[in-house]
Amino acid sequence: MKLTLPLAASTGAETDDLLLGLVGVSIAVLALVFGLMGFYIIRYRHNSPIDRGALEEKSFRFEISWTIATLVVFFGLFIWGSVIYVRQFQPTGNALKIYVIAKQWMWKIEHAGGQREINALHVPIDTPVELVMTSEDVIHDFFVPVFRVKRDVLPGQYETLRFRADRAGTYHLFCSQFCGTDHSNMIGDVVVMPAKAYADWLTSNGAGDTLADQGKILFIRYGCAGCHLGGGTVRAPSLAGLYGSPVPLSDGSTVLADDRYIRDSIMYPKQQIVASYEPIMPSFANVIPENDLVRLVAYIHSLAEEKRG
Amino acid sequence: MSQIVLPQSQISYLSDGVSLRSWLLTTDHKRIAILYMISITAFFFLGGSAAALIRYNLIVPEGMIQSAETYNRLFTMHGIIMVWFFLVPAVPVTIGNFVVPLMLGARDLAFPRLNLASWYLFMAGGFCALYALFSGGVDTGWTFYTPLSSNYAQGHVVVVVMGIFISGFSTIATGINFIITIHRLRAPGLTWYRLPVFIWSLYSTSIIFVLATPVLAITLLLLMFETLFHVGVFDPKLGGDPLLFQHLFWFYSHPAVYIMILPGLGVVSEIIPVFARKELFGYKFVVWASVSIAIIAFFVWGHHMFVSGQSLFASVLFSMLSYFVAVPSAIKVFNWLGTLHKGRIRFDAPMIYALGFIGLFTMGGITGLYLAALAADVHLHDTYFVIAHFHYIMVGGMVSAYFAALHYWWPKITGKMYPEMIARAAALLMFLGFNLTFFPQYILGYLGMPRRYHAYPPEFQVLNVLSSAGATILAAAYLLPLFYLTYSIFRGARAPANPWGSLGLEWQTPSPPFTKNFVVTPTVTEGPYAFSKHETFDV
């Protein structure tokens, strides 16, 4: 019986320090409470002849001291936990982006090169990975215990999960949000591979077209090209160079064009209108399935890279 | 031999009418408490049987129960029954109903008929839920997350939700009844700072009843509309937001956690001074800790959603507030220890339950710190760690407190003494069985076992078997009181008016009390735990 959980991601090291710190605090507090309780109930049992002396009259000093002591310790733990958590949300440059689509009851993984897998995720070692995740039906949760990461996967929006694996091996992937009958079967493997092996794996599973290439075909099929490629009669913002850049909106605010923004703009175009454009784009909600959406998003992403060279 | 005829005011409430009608149409708060007690005991053993089957299933990795459908229905039923039909009404409504008027020196609650109506609403809700759970069941978990519950679940979601909705009105009515009784029906001289801490904790609980339960009612109503008519409040396909449900649900259900623990804290604050024969340390701090818990409890609901996609800012804010709500709980533990210091401690059964409560509540509270720390919660959320944490509070805490209260006031309620040694043994067995059941689950959670899994990877088996073994001990410990307390009703020794040497008003009237509680309304001249002034009174 193993009582410790291996760590396979450098991004989880800080979480382990925090857990260790919490265990330390718990042991100290439990030793204090159980120690005092045990000591008092033996020393002051009713038939013990020990002299109780004068009773403490003023409890005010005690109350203030232990209230402040508790506050200080708790506030320290709050800061510690929050700093790590906020850091987990910071984007890392050059992350390998992989799309995850959850449904009852399987994980569908879409790699940028067009490789697809079900209930398995292959990632290279020592590379920052960014998962862009959504669900086709209910709420699921992507949980890899050895990475110390977990994030709900929601229908109708993109959630991002980041990690950097640093130990080769095969590990559990769990769905940890109850999602219906076969919830406990919605499990899979995360395979962390050395760079060379990963490259080989990509080649041997190559599907031909990359995700962006497939997206380009869909871009024409769904009629996006009609307006957004400039040749049409309707004035629509150009998508070249869009991804990753700030977009000024008609209400005066600015939003960063990330995967979530692009998805939302396709599904709910009236919610965030680009400044100086008319809100004429129709909604594609319930028209484009999630599989196609990730391809479109990948294509629009690739347009930005082309422009930057 | 001439028969002695007692005046009407001096008949014990138990002998004041024996027909079924005299029980079912009673407006006596004590009889209504008994009605509640019988109902929640049935619910407790029903919910407990579901728990037993859950632990039975998890003995082997592939699951002893063949079908995942059955397993999912079992844990849903366990959660719904235990939360809404046992924990919420256990101490506040059942024990509270019996002792609140007695502690205040009143003849009854402010609205006796409303009190009876509350019980009927509770039972109507209970039968609705039972019908749903037995005629096909519900497979959503007790949390009913959308869109699973509204668009994908099979089973009687609407009926069970209707049951909870109806029983919610019962708790609102009881809350109002308690608040008004505490404000208006205190005996002469019973000022706010002379109130027993149990009354203060019920007052805080009642505020949550009244303010939070309507939010649950609205949420459940929306869920019913969503399920039946697809109105699109929570369904992203119709432009709704699934997270909105979680915000609304936890806005009730987090304060509800304090509905389930505040009265327990009150019971322990009541028992510790009596059996340590010493004034409660820091009375005012303990009292205001209860009130501040009840207030802060409304602002921490987001800590259930650290990984569910709420904003970064919201998560950080809710983490901080969650640490704040833990401070008053810690204060209470320190004050109980302060009360034990230099006491004359007796180890009667209620005290053993109360001491067990302090240990288990502290362990449950400490592990709450892990879940409030954002980065740690990312790893532990939705695993068995969470299961262990809230069972330490809800079962280790509140159920222990319920048993402590039951044993402490049993002589008053029934007029009979239970066999003391068996009761002490049961209390110890409960403590041991509980720890063996739930401590392994902390480790399981840390190792990554998600909750609500019908089958699990084989490396988790050893800890699961340990947990199931503990559950059998725990089950035996829960059955013991059922037997010896029932036995004591028929064969127990007669209880004196004040078997523990307590100073509360409820002990100044015979056991069992008269129908109208007191022949003469008592007058209060001192605080509830002034044991130092009653040195000679020591039993």
Layout: helices, strands, pairs:
The complex is a heterodimer of chains A (309) and B (539).
Chain A: H1 13-43, H2 60-88, E1 96-103, E2 106-111, E3 116-118, E4 120-124, E5 128-135, E6 140-144, E7 149-153, E8 159-164, E9 169-175, E10 188-193, H3 195-204, H4 211-221, H5 224-228, E11 246-248, E12 254-256, H6 259-267, H7 290-308
Parallel strand pairs in A: 1-5, 4-10
Antiparallel strand pairs in A: 1-2, 2-3, 5-8, 6-7, 6-9, 9-10, 11-12
Helix pairs in contact in A: 1-2, 4-7
Chain B: H1 20-24, H2 29-57, H3 68-104, H4 112-134, H5 148-152, H6 157-184, H7 197-229, H8 242-259, H9 262-276, H10 283-296, H11 312-340, H12 349-372, H13 374-380, H14 384-414, H15 420-447, H16 461-491
Fraction in helix of chain B? 55-70%
Major sheet of chain B, described briefly?
none
Mean pLDDT of chain A: 89
Low-confidence regions of chain B:
none
Biggest pleated-sheet summary of chain A = 5 strands, mixed
Percentage of helical residues of chain A? 25-40%
Could you say how many structural domains of chain A there are in total?
Answer: 2
> What is the string of helix and strand elements of chain A?
HHEEEEEEEEEEHHHEEHH
Total beta strands of chain A: 12
Question: Biggest sheet of chain A: strands side by side, in what order?
Answer: 3-2-1-5-8
Overall 3D form of chain B = globular
Count of alpha and pi helical runs of chain B: 16
Secondary-structure element order of chain B, N to C? HHHHHHHHHHHHHHHH
